[in-house]
């Protein structure tokens, strides 16, 4: 009997259970917490997912406790967050504290609790999308037009105090395009978009993110229509211009490369170097100086007969201690283009000497100064070439008055090489010998064997010098001079005489013989100097010929039989013979 | 004669010093507001705050990454989190827990809290690097970040001391800071226990770096931008 009762009870229970199961009633399934999110690090909301409710009405509760506390709290707000949510307000939110949250499902059959969720609000921050997204097309003057996008921070975020740090991302695209153009802004709440295609409809979206947390959702799309007449900078034109200029540059570079040198010379012509007309460098290289010089000769140099007329040179013949006959350049003379030479005055003779080094160098350099046909002076070495007709004879130099270099041409009627006259101011007043007569004496003393010739020379020299004075006095003095000159052994007596009798002479300027011309064979053509003071109408021309040059550099003059003036000859001839031994 | 020469020498040396000082001072940045004297006054407060905020942000990023890496590798399904509650050695510091509390805290207090946190993490960071190195199969991601965090922490501490000197001149920094004593648990032989200890440490590091970062950003907006960020 008892056994029957027990088995009956079990059977009934089983029936009851099976009946209830068949009805679908059971304790609820464990709910599941889905996520918790904080929009601004000040509040947060948790959502759960309910399980099967077991066929019976089920209540869900959320309980939690904080880290470091034992007290269990229930969710303060089930509604704000929507169904199956729990909203924690500011009062209930603590940062940097772990929340242990559990959701319980309760129905008639039982209670089911979810797995606990450990939540730290710091790490569950996900803001709302930015709000108030506005789009505006702007056309400022003098600047490119653009699309101006503005927005404001999402709700529930305190950005001003710095509690919530936020960054934004905007994306836009033409309506029919597939790819979005994204822009990132770290803080600001506006953005300007340039380079928009006119006639298109653009869609714009924005989202944001906290400094540490999750990206928000994209905001709803905003759209804007770009009008057809929207001015946009056309880059294709600029590209065309750039390509064209590049092509032009390439062409120019190529042209320069091909004709580089000629173009350079066209733009920057080379500085012309010195060039001698008629001067062939190659001839010089070959060493054929004769041809070279002939080429130079042909260049209308030296001056022709005109120059001969112009050549007015005086030879100062005077005696000196050294007993040398020295040709002296005349005081006055300026040839066309010929520059006066400066004579150095030696201390010994009181005369400018031809052998002074500076003078020699001057004379050597003289052709350079001469406005000749030569374009460039080729150098002093050339001048010393005897074939050039421009010679400076390099006589041995001596410190004393001896060995004075006569300066004369080697050949050719090159008037430019004649010693140039020096200005009268340079003449030393120390000259004590200033007439040919004295020189004659010297010459007599020097060359005894050539007395006769010297006599003749004397005569002619006298004749030559005589022309300076046309007055009788002058002649008288000349006669006296000639007397003195012809007495050879009486040098001692001769000497004072001219000095005594030559007060006039001494007061007078030096007597000169004019060199009329120099012929081909070295003939000095002299003629008396015209003295305007005396109104000398003397136009006769007398010539002396240089017969030779002695070893001691004495010019030996010989009478020119062709151009003798008989009247002049007579007088000295009368008086000379008695004086002759 | 000697004195004359030496005085000349001295004057020349002085002149040289002055000139060199002037030349060196050319490279100094911006104009400082310097109540503390010429000691640390070469960078403006704004620049100091900018720099500090950058560094604190960086440290927090690194800490988060390191924690996530460790969690993914060693803590899956182990329930270490349960043990991590109340395990931070810096919990004794009275740090504000929400925005209102933080906004009501004076900046002096906030700054000294920051300094205390930074100082209290010097030692644990050093040991963390050592111990992670010795960890079996430790991924380079964790180790490199640990090294970087240790370095940046020192830098931030220096910067914070400078800021403190400028904002609160004359204040003495004698606040005590919490001492970490979790080294034995890092070195225990029980692997689970050791990993749990590491987990705790990384969890606390992530949290404290977040605190420092948030407080600094708050101070930056308050002091430099006058609550108008």
UniProtKB/TrEMBL annotation, chain A:
Residues 27-127, 129-229 form the Fibronectin type-III domain. It holds the Pfam family fn3. The chain crosses the membrane at residues 237-258. Residues 1-24 form the signal peptide. Residues 329-349, 375-384, 469-483 have a biased composition (Basic and acidic residues). Residues 324-384, 458-499 are annotated as: Disordered. Keywords: Disulfide bond, Glycoprotein, Membrane, Metal-binding, Receptor, Repeat, Signal, Transmembrane, Transmembrane helix, Zinc. Interacts with SMARCA1. Interacts with NEK3 and VAV2 and this interaction is prolactin-dependent. This is a receptor for the anterior pituitary hormone prolactin. PANTHER family: CYTOKINE RECEPTOR (PTHR23036), PROLACTIN RECEPTOR (PTHR23036:SF86). This is Prolactin receptor. It comes from Bos taurus.
């Amino acid at each position: 009997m008892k056994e029957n009762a027990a088995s009956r009870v079990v059977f009934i229970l089983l029936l009851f259970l099976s009946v209830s199961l068949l009805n679908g009633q059971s304790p609820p399934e464990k709910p599941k917490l889905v996520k918790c999110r904080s929009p601004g690090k000040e509040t947060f909301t948790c959502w759960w997912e309910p399980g099967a409710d077991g066929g019976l009405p089920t209540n869900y509760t959320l309980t939690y406790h904080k880290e470091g506390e034992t007290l269990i709290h229930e969710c303060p707000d089930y509604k704000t967050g929507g169904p199956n949510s729990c909203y924690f307000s500011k009062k209930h939110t603590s940062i940097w504290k772990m929340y242990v949250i559990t959701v319980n499902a309760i129905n008639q059959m039982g209670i089911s609790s979810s797995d606990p969720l450990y939540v730290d609000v710091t790490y569950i921050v996900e803001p709302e999308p930015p709000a108030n997204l506005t789009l505006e097309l702007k056309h400022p003057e003098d600047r490119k037009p653009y699309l101006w996008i503005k927005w404001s921070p999402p709700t529930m975020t305190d950005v001003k105090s710095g509690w919530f740090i936020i960054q934004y991302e905007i994306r836009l695209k033409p309506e029919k395009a597939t790819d979005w153009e994204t822009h990132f802004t770290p803080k600001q709440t506006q953005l300007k978009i340039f380079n928009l295609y006119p006639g298109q409809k653009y869609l714009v979206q924005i989202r944001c993110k906290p400094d540490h947390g999750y990206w928000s959702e994209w905001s709803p799309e905003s759209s804007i229509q770009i009008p057809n007449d929207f001015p946009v900078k056309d880059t294709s034109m600029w590209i065309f211009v750039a390509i064209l200029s590049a092509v032009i540059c390439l062409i120019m570079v190529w042209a320069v490369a091909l004709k580089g040198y000629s173009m350079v010379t066209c733009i920057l012509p080379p500085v012309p170097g010195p060039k001698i007309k008629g001067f062939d460098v190659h001839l010089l290289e070959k060493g054929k100086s004769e041809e070279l010089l002939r080429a130079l000769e042909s260049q209308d140099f030296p001056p022709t007969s005109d120059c001969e007329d112009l050549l007015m040179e005086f030879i100062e013949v005077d005696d000196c201690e050294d007993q040398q006959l020295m040709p002296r350049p005349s005081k006055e003379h300026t040839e066309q283009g010929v520059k006066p030479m400066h004579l150095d005055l030696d201390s010994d003779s009181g005369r400018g000497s031809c052998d002074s080094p500076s003078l020699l160098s001057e004379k050597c350099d003289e052709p350079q100064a001469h406005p000749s046909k030569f374009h460039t002076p080729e150098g002093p070495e050339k001048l010393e070439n005897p074939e050039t007709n421009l010679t400076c004879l390099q006589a041995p130099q001596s410190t004393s008055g001896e060995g004075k270099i006569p300066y004369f041409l080697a050949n050719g009627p090159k008037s430019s090489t004649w010693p140039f006259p020096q200005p009268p101011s340079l003449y030393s007043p120390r000259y004590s010998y200033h007439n040919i007569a004295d020189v004659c004496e010297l010459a007599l003393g020097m060359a005894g064997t050539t007395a006769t010739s010297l006599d003749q020379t004397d005569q002619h020299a006298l004749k030559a010098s005589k022309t300076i004075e046309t007055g009788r006095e002058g002649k008288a003095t000349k006669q006296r001079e000639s007397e003195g000159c012809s007495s050879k052994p009486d040098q001692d007596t001769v000497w004072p005489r001219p000095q005594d009798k030559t007060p006039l002479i001494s007061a007078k300027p030096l007597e000169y013989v004019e060199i009329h011309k120099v012929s081909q064979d070295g003939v000095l053509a002299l003629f008396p100097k015209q003295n305007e003071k005396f109104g000398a109408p003397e136009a006769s021309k007398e010539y002396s010929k240089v017969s030779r040059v002695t070893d001691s550099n004495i010019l030996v003059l010989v009478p020119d039989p062709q151009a003798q003036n008989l009247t002049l000859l007579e007088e000295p001839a009368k008086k000379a013979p008695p004086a002759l031994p | 004669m000697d004195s004359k020469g030496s005085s000349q020498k001295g004057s020349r040396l002085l002149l040289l010093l002055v000139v060199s000082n002037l030349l060196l001072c050319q490279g100094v940045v911006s104009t400082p507001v310097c109540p503390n004297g010429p000691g640390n006054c070469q960078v403006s407060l704004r620049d100091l705050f900018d720099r500090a905020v950058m560094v604190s942000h960086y440290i927090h990023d690194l800490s988060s990454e390191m924690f996530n890496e460790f969690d993914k590798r060693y803590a899956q399904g182990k329930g270490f989190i349960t043990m991590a509650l109340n395990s931070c050695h810096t919990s004794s510091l009275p740090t504000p827990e929400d925005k209102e509390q933080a906004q009501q805290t004076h900046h002096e207090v906030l700054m000294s809290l920051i300094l205390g946190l930074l100082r209290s993490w010097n030692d644990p960071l050093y040991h963390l690097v050592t111990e992670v190195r010795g960890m079996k199969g430790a991924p380079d991601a964790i180790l490199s970040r640990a090294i970087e965090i240790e370095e940046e922490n020192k830098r931030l501490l220096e910067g914070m001391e400078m800021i403190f000197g400028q904002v609160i001149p004359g204040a003495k920094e004698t606040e005590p800071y919490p001492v970490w004593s979790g080294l034995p648990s890092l070195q225990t032989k029980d692997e689970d226990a050791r990993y749990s200890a590491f987990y705790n440490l990384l969890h606390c590091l992530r949290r404290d770096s977040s605190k420092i970062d948030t407080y600094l950003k708050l101070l930056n907006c308050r002091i430099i931008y006058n609550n108008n960020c």
